[in-house]
Specification:
Blueprint lengths: L21 H11 L3 H15 L5 E5 L2 E2 L11 E2 L7 H7 L4 H16 L10 E7 L8 H15 L1 E11 L6 H10 L3 E7 L3 H6 L6 H13 L5 E7 L6 H14 L3 E6 L7 H5 L10 H17 L3 E4 L2 E3 L6 H7 L5 E3 L4 E4 L2 E4 L4 H12 L13 H12 L6 E2 H8 L1 H16 L3 E4 L5 E2 L1 H8 L12 E4 L3 H4 L1 H10 L4
Parallel strand pairs: 1-4, 1-11, 2-3, 4-5, 5-6, 6-7, 7-8
Antiparallel strand pairs: 8-10, 9-10, 12-13, 14-17, 15-16, 15-17
Helix pairs in contact: 1-14, 4-5, 4-13, 5-6, 9-11, 15-16, 16-17, 16-19
């Protein structure tokens, strides 16, 4: 599953800061000053850009050996085993809990009726969890075959799978690769046994090294490593060591998440954010700066707030989220975005089973009718764009929502451009200096977006202020 439990700035890509409630009234006011023709064009532009048929699918495989202490994802714990990893993996082959769930998942995919005249083949598939690598390859094959039959699957589709150390061997990985899995996301989280144990992880450091060797020996060229900062009792030295060892392992992609303490989790019951043994906000910010510095120095591009990649290895599936494009989702607790509607499936197995039955009977509606609420789309675009190194595209945003909205956003950001938390770029991605930006914003005869094409948050200090900066963008348009 998209790693929302441990995200450095946003707790969820679909959630919004509290001040976003202001945008509903504010956009009504601003759009009243926009000519009717422009409002109609805005709706058309957004429909064209964001509401076509999806070409991506997220598939939730919820099985874990046990629940980690920070996890609030919808999972099904299978239980840990004292047996060897090989025997444990073999035991999953005929586990009826896995088989029954996958059969239910296949029913959901087959029962999905799209609202589009044509449905392009899927370009990305992401198996998230949970720990998808616990699922036998024959069942993964069944899911992929069903997706291909229902929607079509491009021959060169990016097919990603989250995998945890200790849940797969070389033979299993090769089988998955033969099925089409061509990108692995390895859930390492830390390189210190004491931290892994404190988090309730089912693996140790020895299994981390074993998993890395398996991935490399099997020839997986596109693989990512997940790390978590701000863990209980984690020191800066430990974090630097984890980053150094990650870099030495040479993954093509690294995802770095800052621990979020969620209510209802074991950590949520015993820890308070910012208080020992958790790091302070200042320490967490230093962890983030350290990751940015070390990974960029090692040749990784910081292309999204928590994502770093070598050239040519950005996660194509996750870019669909950040670009606010539509995507299918299947499985327990998964959230889709189709036809302008974000829809979350039930998190409990019984309710999810009932949902699938309703879907088969035509009683469940998960797809929007294609109509787009400008206010909702605007908040999503602002929030998601500022997650990325590309930033907010002002000309496109202005065509959709009007010049007045763009000017309002630019004016409130003047101090942050001057303090270098926000970077202004022209259409050639060259930086526009703060003095020039201030002059443009102050001239009502000039369209700022004709001279400043992008606003992006500076790495790393701008990213660290992203919640505040995004809230300003929402709040400034409130009368």
């Amino acid at each position: 599953m998209l790693r929302t439990t441990a995200s450095p700035i946003f707790s969820s890509f679909t959630s919004k800061p509290r001040t976003s409630r202001l945008i509903f009234k504010a956009f009504n006011v601003l759009l009243e000053d926009t000519p009717p023709s422009a409002r109609r064009n805005a709706s058309t532009n957004l429909t064209t850009l964001h509401q076509g048929p999806p070409t991506s699918a997220y598939v939730h495989l919820p099985f874990c050996r046990k629940r980690c202490h920070y996890c609030d994802f919808p999972i099904l714990a299978l239980g840990s085993s004292s047996a060897s990893n090989t025997l444990y993996q073999e035991a999953q082959e005929d586990d009826p809990r896995i088989t029954n769930y996958v059969n239910l998942l296949v029913r959901e995919i087959n029962a999905t009726r799209t609202c589009f005249d044509t449905n392009p083949e899927l370009k990305t598939v992401f198996f998230g969890g949970g720990t998808p690598s616990l699922v036998p390859p024959k069942l993964v094959s069944l899911v992929l075959e069903t997706l291909s039959s229902r929607f079509g699957l491009c021959p060169d589709a990016e097919v990603s799978m989250e995998m945890d150390p200790g849940t797969f061997g070389g033979e299993k990985l090769k089988e998955l690769m033969e099925l089409g899995v061509n990108r692995v996301s390895l859930g390492v989280q830390a390189f210190q046994d004491e931290l892994l144990k404190a988090c309730g992880r089912a693996h140790g450091v020895s299994e981390v090294y074993e998993a890395i060797e398996i991935v490399k020996s099997c020839g997986v060229g596109n693989w990512s490593m997940d790390l978590i900062s701000s863990l209980p009792h984690q020191s800066l030295e430990m974090w630097e060591e984890s980053l150094r060892l990650a870099i030495e392992s040479q993954p093509s992609h690294v995802s770095v998440y800052d621990l979020q303490v969620e209510q209802g989790t074991k950590f949520g019951n015993v820890y308070t954010p910012g208080q020992s043994p958790l790091p302070s906000e200042t320490q967490s910010a230093e962890f983030y700066r350290t990751a940015s510095s070390m990974l960029r120095a090692a040749g990784y591009e910081h292309y999204e707030v928590s994502s770093y990649s070598k050239e040519g290895f950005k996660c194509k599936h996750n870019l669909i989220y950040w670009k606010n494009k539509p995507f299918y989702a299947f499985g327990l607790g998964s959230a889709s975005y189709v036809g302008g509607l974000r829809f979350s499936r039930p998190r409990r197995l019984k309710e999810y089973t009932n949902y699938v039955s309703d879907l088969e009977n035509g009683a469940a509606n998960w797809c929007g009718d294609g109509s787009v609420d400008l206010k909702d789309v605007a908040t999503d675009i602002i929030m998601l764009s500022f997650r990325t190194s590309r930033g907010l595209e002002l000309k496109e945003f202005g065509e959709a929502f009007g010049r007045k909205v763009v000017n309002s956003i630019c004016k409130v950001y003047e101090p942050y451009v001057e303090s270098e938390h926000i970077v202004c770029l022209d259409d050639m991605r060259r930086e526009v200096m703060s003095d020039e930006f201030k002059e443009l914003v102050g001239n009502d005869e000039v369209k700022v977006e004709d001279h400043v094409r992008y606003l992006r948050l500076r790495d790393p200090d701008g990213f660290l202020l992203s919640n505040e900066l995004i809230s300003l963008a929402f709040g400034v348009i409130s009368p």
